[in-house]
Specification:
The structure holds two protein chains of two kinds. Chain A is an alpha/beta fold. Chain A has helices at residues 19-31, 41-61, 74-90, 105-116, 134-140, 163-172, 233-236, 244-259, 261-282, 309-318, 338-342, 347-351, 364-383; strands at 7-8, 68-71, 96-100, 120-124, 145-149, 176-180, 199-203, 214-218, 287-289, 299-303, 321-322, 324-325, 353-357. In chain A, helix 10 crosses helix 13. Chain B folds into two domains: 13-139, Sufe protein. Chain: A; 144-200, Arc Repressor Mutant, subunit A. In chain B, the strands form two sheets. In chain B, strands 1-2-3 form a three-stranded antiparallel sheet. Classes of the chains: A alpha/beta, B alpha+beta.
Chain lengths: 387, 204
């Protein structure tokens, strides 16, 4: 019964690094060992690789290279932005931060911490499709808001927000605008210029780059406070010796993402729709979560009533298929996905949710394999279910 | 990678086996009438369990079950259903989650709570059997543990009060039992038990 076929459909958790990126990184790691901050030729050589990456990322985000700071990942970038906002509040430049109920834990948990420290943070809710309630946001806005932070695309539902519109609203009230674009990079266009953004977070491993390296874009003249102190790297914005190979790899991944963006988007969406139709046609009584109009092209979140998510996940795993679930049982807590609950989903539906996230290396064959494997699994779990 | 990649599965081989091939499932097309049954948990809580039993000569003659739950819940109920077949009602009533998880070769620590529904549903079924047949229930209080020494409150009492909606908050529980009003040492533990019971009986 053990399957030899392996299908990785958990690309929102992390992606397989692009072979051309690994190859380039290995060469850099092996031969470019100078410290990119050193003045000698070894250092200058390493620095060229770092600056090459900075330019590639700036091209992707449509901004200036000097507005790019390399970090250890999106979590650090998000933490940095919120610590900047905290510093502004402590300097009495305002008194509030606004963010949403569906952000990544690196923001949700940071908010909990800041609230404990006495910082006021208001959370704006989302509708049933996971889209930010604009009327609610408008009501929350005021001259005392220092920062508005809204993710571009959600990791679970795939729902995309109208960041351009939210950014305009934030600026109208004199607030800074941040978006965590981690899930959107490489799938849809993310433009710091067009969307008029002050801060953007992203992570290398979500778009076929290496893990452990990310980016914080901060608009020129936007307030900045380092989160990691201890060195003059990144013009004093982020201390720590440059991870030359990883940064170069991220830059290369950014270049590939920009070059293939439209094609990648359309291919992912076609596969996603093939999967959605195949599952809806072959499994009775399913609920497709999130917004179908504004959705990251590779993400499909589905609830299967009367079948529990962890059981589905493990049965798929037995067949070589890797997915995620919003069920509490998979996390060890008693609460299912807060994102799905924030979208107004029934607790039971959240427990029975599965997230498929397609990526560059998936094929129609993978999709068809899932459509073949999953229906009998759901049927059996429903047979042994109490309902 | 392809042939042995499941070797480091999060669960033991025994758990995997019982999860993939659960024993004694209450198949909906099977003509099987239980003498009694019990149900605990709720779909909203992410786990619900129904256990049916046939009793002969004071022994569990046969058992069937259904569950909405995760792999641990499915595997532990399957294992439990194998263990209790042929047991006397008294023995079956005293089955504990640790006996089940031991037989499974262990569960990851954070999955332990998923294994407590099977034996609870079984006890509910035995209670149901004794009640239906107007028989005394000597077990119910025998397995009770005193959790508040000062006011002599047992876990069974708390379970009963939660199950019957008599205590829906900690305040109500305190009014009814007086727990924690003596030395106060038990408070944290009782609050934990209360939350767990609310979860199990679908009250939270």
């Amino acid at each position: 019964m053990m399957s030899n076929k392996l299908v990785y459909m958990d690309n929102n958790a992390t992606t397989r690094i692009a072979p051309e990126v690994v190859k380039a990184m290995a060469e850099v790691e092996a031969s470019v060992y100078g410290n990119a901050s050193s003045m000698h030729s070894f250092g200058r050589e390493a620095n060229r690789y770092v600056e090459d990456a900075r330019k590639n990322v700036a091209d992707l985000l449509e901004c200036h290279p000097e507005e790019i700071t390399f970090t250890s990942g999106a979590s650090e970038a998000n933490n940095t932005v919120f610590s900047i906002a905290r510093a502004l509040i402590e300097k009495k430049k305002g008194s509030r931060i606004i963010t949403t109920t569906i952000e990544h834990p690196s923001i949700i948990e940071t908010v909990k911490y800041l609230k404990k420290e006495g910082i006021r943070v208001d959370l704006v809710g989302v509708d049933n499709e996971g889209r930010v309630r604009m009327d609610e946001l408008e009501k929350l806005m005021g001259p005392d808001v220092v920062l508005v932070s809204v993710m571009t695309g959600n990791n679970e539902t795939g729902t995309i927000q109208d960041i351009e519109k939210i950014s305009a609203l934030a600026h109208r009230h004199g607030a800074l605008m941040h978006t965590d674009a981690t899930q959107a990079i490489g799938k849809i266009e993310v433009s710091a210029k067009k969307w008029n953004l002050d801060y953007v977070s992203m992570s290398g491993h979500k778009f076929y780059g290496p893990k452990g390296v990310g980016v914080l874009y901060a608009r020129k003249y936007a307030p900045f406070e380092p989160f990691v102190h201890g060195g003059e790297q990144e013009h004093g914005r982020r201390a720590g010796t440059y991870n030359t190979a990883a940064i170069y790899g991220l830059g290369l991944a950014a270049k590939l993402a920009k070059e293939g963006l439209k094609e990648e988007h359309d291919r992912l969406w076609e596969m996603r729709e093939r999967l959605r139709k195949g599952l809806v046609e072959n499994i009775p009584d399913v609920v497709v979560n999130g917004c179908q109009e504004h959705c990251l092209p590779g993400t499909l979140d589905i609830s299967f009533p009367c079948a529990e998510g962890e059981s589905i996940l493990l049965m798929l795993d037995m067949n070589g298929i890797a997915v995620s679930t919003g069920s509490a049982c998979a996390t060890g807590s008693l609460e299912p996905s807060y994102v799905l609950l924030a979208c107004g989903l029934d607790v039971e539906l959240a427990h029975g949710s599965i997230r498929f996230s397609l990526g560059r290396y998936n094929t129609d064959e993978d999709v068809d394999y899932v459509i073949q494997v999953l229906p009998p699994i759901i049927k059996r779990l429903r047979e042994i279910s109490t309902r | 990678m392809s042939s042995s990649f499941m070797a480091d599965w999060v669960y033991t081989d025994v758990v995997k086996d019982h999860f993939m091939n659960p024993r004694n499932i209450w198949e909906k097309d099977e003509d099987w009438e239980p003498d009694a049954f019990g149900e605990v948990g709720s779909l909203a809580c992410g786990d619900q369990m129904r256990v049916g039993i046939k009793v002969f000569n004071d022994k569990i003659a046969d058992i069937r079950w259904l569950t909405y739950g995760c792999a641990s819940a499915i595997a532990s109920t399957s294992m439990m259903s194998e263990m209790v077949k042929g047991m006397s009602l008294s023995e079956a009533y005293h089955i504990t989650p640790s006996m089940i998880t031991d037989a499974l070769g262990g569960l990851p620590e954070h999955k332990f709570h998923c294994s407590v529904l099977g034996d609870k549903a079984l006890r509910a079924a035995i209670d149901n059997y004794l009640e239906k047949n107007n028989l005394p229930n000597p077990y119910k209080n025998a397995i009770a543990k005193v959790v508040c020494e000062c006011r002599n409150v047992t876990d069974q009492q708390i379970e009963e009060l939660v199950k019957t909606d008599k205590a829906t908050t900690l305040e109500e529980l305190q009014q009814l039992t007086g727990y924690g009003t003596g030395c106060g040492k038990c408070k944290k533990n009782i609050e934990h038990i209360f939350e767990e019971m609310r979860h199990i009986y679908g009250k939270s």
